[in-house]
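One example given next:
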Amino acid sequence: MNYVFHSEAYAEFKHAIDRYESCSEGLGYDFAVEVYSTIEQIVAYPKAWVILEKEVRRCQTRRFTYGVPYAEEPEGICMRHQHQL
């Protein structure tokens, strides 16, 4: 199954990477790796997490206090922005 980032979700993701990187060198990279690992779980098991609102679900990362909101769409998984809930 394919996945895409909604444009606002991608901007939020990039901002979070920069924020973690400003805390400690390399932490932004670690965060990005963790988010992509979480996305792999979402793609493998898209119905595994609870629906938050309408069709939007959220999968929590393991290491960081960051949840990845997403929706299953006909063309694949769409990563959503936190404020799209």
Notes: The CA atoms of residues 42 and 48 lie 8 Å apart. The first strand starts at residue 3 and ends at 5. The longest helix spans residues 27-44. The domain at 3-84 is CATH 3.30.2310.20 (YaeB-like fold).
